Amino acid sequence: MKKITILDLKKMKYERDKISMLTAYDFRTSVMLDACDVDILLVGDSVGNVVMGFENTLSVTVDNMLYHTKAVVRGRKRALVVADMPFMSYQVSIDEARRNAGILIKEGGAEAVKIEGGENVESVVKALSDIDIPVMGHIGLTPQSIHRMGGYKVQGKEERQQEKLLADALSVERGGAFAVVLEAIPQKLAAKITEKLKIPTIGIGAGPDCDGQVLVINDLLGLSGKFRPKFVKQYVQLEPIIKKAVSEYVGEVKKKKFPQDEFTFS
Description:
By secondary structure, the protein is an alpha/beta fold. It is 41% helix and 14% strand. The chain has an eight-stranded parallel barrel, surrounded by seven helices. The N and C termini lie far apart (44 Å).
C-alpha cells in the first residue's frame, strides 16, 4: 500500500488521474475510507455542523480540530490527512496562524492544513509554506464567510466575481498552496481555473472538470437529515436503515426479547 503524498497529487493532476477526497471526523470512519483508497481525508471544520450540532462552522475551535484530527490520523495508513484551520485561527496574525497550524501538524499528526480565502490570505499561505507546513487553499463559497456572503450561495455568477475568483486562485497558488478547493462555483469557471493553475483543484459543487472531487461523508451516506445541497449525490440512505435497527432494538428490550440466551454469559 503506497502512502499518498503531496507529490503524488501533483503527479495525478498532470496524468489526469482524478483525486478523491472525503471528510472524516473519527477513527472508525477513517479506517473504512482509507481501506477504500480515498486519496485525501479532510478533517473538516464541517464537524461543527454534522457532528457537534452547531448552526455553522464558526464555533469550531483549534482544540476541536486537534481532537478529531488525532482520531482520523490513527485510522489511516494510505490517505493524506488535511486538517481545516478553524475560524479565527489564522486571521488574527501570521504568528497565530503559524502556531495553530503547527499544533495541527505536530500534535494532531495532519500532513497539511486547509485555509479559506484568496488574495486576502496569500501572506498566510506563504508564511506557512515557508516553514514547510503544506497548505490547501479554499475559494468560492467559503463557509467561514457566510455572514458576508449572506448564506450558502453559489459564487462567481457575475463577470466581476469570476475575475475575482480567478485572481484568488492564482494568489493562493502564488502563496505556495499545493492544491485548492473550489466550492459552489459555475462549471465553466472551475474548468478555466483548473486549466490556469499548476496545482490540483478539488471541486465541491464545481463540476466535473476539476482535478478531483470532495464530499462531506455524512452527505454521501445519507446521514444529513433533510439537508441536501444540489451538488450532493447520496450513494446510500443510511438514516432510515439505522432508525429501523434502533427501533427494533428498543422494541425487543421493552418486550423482554433481548438479550436471548445466546447473548448471555453462563
